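Hi there,

I know you've been waiting on this one. I reran it after we fixed the sequence typo, so this is the corrected version. Both the input and the resulting structure follow.
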Amino acid sequence: MINDVSFGPIQQVAYIVADLDQSILMWNQAMGIGPFAVARNVQPLEGSVYRGEESHGITINLGFAYIDNIQLELIQPCDEQPSIYREALDAGHTALHHYGFLVEDYETAYQDALNAGYQAIVDAGQKGWARMAYMELQSMPGLISEIIEWNDNTRPYFDGVKDMLSAADSKQLIHEFSL
């Protein structure tokens, strides 16, 4: 039987890294990827639920680049707070962490994932604003999908990063910005 769950095309691949700047340099030197948009000391999941518990105050550094139309996201945990990112780094998983999908019908995508055997690791955001969830397929531990509500609030964020990098000086590898 073929599973009917579909989040649409992959829009993002994300890696957990121990050192953002070193990882950016490695991606650039090994694969020619860059330039990168970098946001430091970001607290993206305030008020989220992580493995059934309310989560507060994690801090991360983020690096973004594009490989054609796919966003490469590098995530560096900056503190010891329990999080999906710290969990991966502490386990030594500094490789592919998750695939990201931008979904217009968030509630349907979320329910389809649950029906297909996914379990929510992180739930974040606010209905009517922007929501996201990290979902792990129970039959394939380690396969994590991030579903991101694609709407008038999230579209400018993704488009803005892509536009900034398209206009960036290609001789400068890192372009700092604030979230």
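Quick highlight: The radius of gyration is 16 Å.

Best,
R. S.
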